[in-house]
Design a protein that fits this description.
Elements: H1 10-27, H2 35-47, H3 52-71, H4 98-109, H5 113-129, H6 133-137, E1 150-154, E2 160-164, H7 167-183, H8 205-219, H9 228-241, H10 246-253, H11 258-261, H12 263-279, H13 283-290
Antiparallel strand pairs: 1-2
Helix pairs in contact: 1-3, 4-5, 4-8, 5-7, 5-9, 9-12
Subcellular location: Cytoplasm
Protein name: Tyrosine recombinase XerC
Keywords: Cell cycle, Cell division, Chromosome partition, Cytoplasm, DNA integration, DNA recombination, DNA-binding
Length: 291
């Protein structure tokens, strides 16, 4: 149902499968488990030190599972109906400064030969568009075949959206296309923009993350602070700081709910608060009073 009716992505299906396997390991047969057993499963998540956000995601999966069973007439009751979701904090997204992003791009360009062209194309495109890493690595070659100014992306749930491409990103992609096309066998060229010899046929998320870690080291940035998703956050934070409106940002990021995009306004609020507390003429006086 999740795959056929809701168009869930492969990564989502894998996560749900793992969640249901974990439920089965804890309660036995989920088809006959009662509310007490399911409540015990949820309590076990907290005992194992699982983050509240992960617990909430797992509970969402279980609720959808039992809702499906009830709708299909396979159960008469929903043992997850009365379970309370764990309280979630709202952590601000981690992002890099503009200077740090520039350092990453400089380090990518400094890589030798094909590796540098590939890394530059990936980073320029990610920072210019804010794509999810799965969307980036699985771009088809046809998406940039004619040097488009707008990238058409198929995101979560199979929904398409259009994201503008900056001139530096277009130039980096054009350079990569030349290298890629020259290396492709003419008898059987890959359909992917970033091909690989792996099972998927294209660069994997893990492969790109590892590449990004090496580039971060070369740029003098702690690799633990750098990931594809951090670059997506950086794109959004920098765009909003530059005056972009929230609705346009929502569309570019592919968020179904604008409330998800609104978290970036909290980043700006935190920046303004830090500015006031460090630069206001009375800031030193207030600090001395606290001492």
């Amino acid at each position: 149902m999740m795959a056929a009716e809701r168009g869930a992505a492969a990564n989502t299906l894998d996560a749900y499968r793992r969640d249901l396997d974990d439920l089965q390991d804890c309660v036995g047969d989920p088809l006959t488990a009662d509310a007490t057993a399911v409540r015990g499963w949820l309590a076990r998540q907290a005992q194992l030190g699982m983050a509240p956000r992960t617990q909430a995601r797992r509970l969402s999966c279980i609720r959808q599972f039992y809702g499906f069973l009830v709708a299909e007439g396979l159960r008469r009751d929903d043992p997850s109906a009365d379970l309370d979701s764990p309280r979630l904090g709202r952590p601000l997204p981690k992002y890099l400064s503009e200077d740090e992003v520039k350092a990453l791009l400089d380090a990518a360009r400094a890589l030798e030969a094909e590796a540098g062209v590939l890394a530059t194309a990936l980073l320029e495109t990610l920072y210019a568009t804010g794509l999810r890493v799965s969307e980036l690595v699985s771009l088809p070659a046809a998406a940039v075949a004619r040097d488009p100014s707008v990238l058409v992306v198929r995101g979560k749930g199979g929904k398409e959206r259009m994201v503008p491409l900056s001139d530096p990103a277009r130039a980096a992609l054009a350079a990569w296309r030349s290298v890629r096309d020259a290396a492709q066998p003419k008898s059987r060229p890959s359909r992917w923009l970033f091909p690989s010899t792996g099972v998927s046929g294209h660069l994997t998320r893990a492969g790109f993350a590892a590449m990004l870690g090496r580039i971060a080291l070369a740029a003098g940035i702690d690799p633990g602070r750098v990931s594809p998703h951090v670059l997506r956050h950086s794109f959004a934070s920098h765009l909003l700081a530059g005056g972009a409106d929230l609705r346009s940002l929502q569309q570019m990021l592919g968020h179904a709910d604008i409330a998800t995009t609104e978290i970036y306004t909290h980043v700006q609020e935190a920046q303004r608060l830090k500015l006031v507390t460090s630069c206001h003429p009375l800031a030193d006086l207030a600090a001395k009073r606290r001492e």
